[in-house]
Amino acid sequence: MSKRLKPFLAALAFCSVAAPAAAVTFGVPDGNAHPFVGTILFQRPDGFYSCTGTMLNSTVMLTAGHCTEEGGVANIRTWVTFTPKIQFSTGCNGNLACLIRYFDNAKNGWIKGTAYPHPDYDDFNQFPATFDVGVIKLSTAVSMPAYGTLPPIGFLATVKPADNNFTVVGYGLQGYIPAFSSDLWERYVGNTKLVELNSTWDGGHSAKFSNNPGSTSGGTCFGDSGGPIFYQDTNMIVAVVSWGQTPCIGVDYNFRTDLQTTQDFVKMFAK
Fold it and tell me: Which end of the chain, N or C, is surrounded by fewer C-beta atoms within 10 Å?
C-alpha cells in the first residue's frame, strides 16, 4: 500500500506545502516517540511514491519489497527523512531536474538511499508467498537514540491472547473512506491486534492484523507500506505493512519478520 504522489510535481510549485501523499488509521500524531521510523520518497518511471520504513542501524532501513522495486526494476531514486510532519518549499515550480537536486541536497533534510528488494520478490506473483520485504541502504549514517530490532524466528506463533497488543507507526493516509478520510504527510501511531496467522490469505508470509475504528485502535493505509508493526511498546518489529483487501479499514496483511527468509535477507545488510 504505497502511495502514489499524483499531483506531487505541481504541488511543489507552491511556497510551502504538505504533499498529499501521506498515516496510520484511527491513530494519533506520533511526535518524537519513534524517531527511527521515517518516510521514504522514491521515483519510478511513472512518478513519485511514498512509503514508511524503520532504521535497524545507522545506515539500514527496513521496508516492504514493493517500496523498493516494481516490475523487476529497483527504484530510480530513493530518499528518506525522519521529520515527524513533512513540509517543504523547493522553489522548483515543478521542474524535475530542480526537484531531484533539492532532494539530493542533504541540507534540505532528505538522505539519499539505495533500494534493495528481497531477491525472491516478484510483484506478488508467488502469492501468498509474497517475499514483500526490502531494505534501503542510506548514503549517510544517521545516529538515533534507538533502532528497530528483529524478533526470534516464529515469534508471532507464541503470542498469547493476553499479550495480543501491537503498535503500528507510519506516514500514510489517516483514512480513505469518506467518514474517516484524512491525508496528512505526518508520522502517526496506533494500536492493532493480531487476528490470524493461518488463513487462506495469510498462510504464506503475511499475518492478519486488525484495522478498525475505536478508542484504542489503529491500522494502516496507503503510504504506510513498509512501516513497522511493533510488539506492544517495544522496538521489536514483528511485521512490515504489506497489503489489504479493503480500503484502509477491516484487516491488514503484514509481511512477517519472524521468518527465516526475512532474517537471512536483512542480515546481508544489517551486519
Answer: C
What mean pLDDT comes out for the span 188-210?
Answer: 91
Is the per-residue pLDDT at 253 higher than 50? yes
Alpha helices in 81-120, H assignment, sequence order: 96-104
Q: Using alpha carbons only, what angle is made at residue 168 by residues 132 and 36, rounded to the nearest 5 degrees?
A: 85
Q: Please tell me which residue, 10 or 207, carries the higher pLDDT value.
A: 207
Angle at 210 between CA 209 and CA 213, to 5 degrees: 155
Supply the DSSP symbol for 94: T
Residue type, 119: P
Mean predicted confidence (pLDDT) in 249-263: 95
CA distance linking residue 215 with residue 196, whole number of Å: 22
**Nearest CA-CA partner of 218 in 18, 20, 14, 30:** 30
CB atoms under 10 Å from CB of 91, counted, come to 10
Tens of pLDDT along 65-89? 999 999 999 999 999 999 999 987 8
Which domains are present in the chain?
Answer: 3-25+34-138 (2.40.10.10), 155-259 (2.40.10.10)
How far, in Å, CA of 165 to CA of 159, rounded?
A: 9
- How do 134-138 and 60-63 pair as beta strands? antiparallel
Residue 102, classed as helix, strand or coil, is helix
DSSP letter assigned to residue 151: P
What are the cell numbers at 98? 530542480
Grid-cell match 499475518, residue found = 207
SS3 content of the chain, % helix, strand, coil (to 5): 15, 35, 50
- Contact by Cβ (8 Å): 128, 261: no
Query: Residues near 140 by Cβ (< 8 Å), separated by ≥ 6?
Result: 59, 106, 111, 112
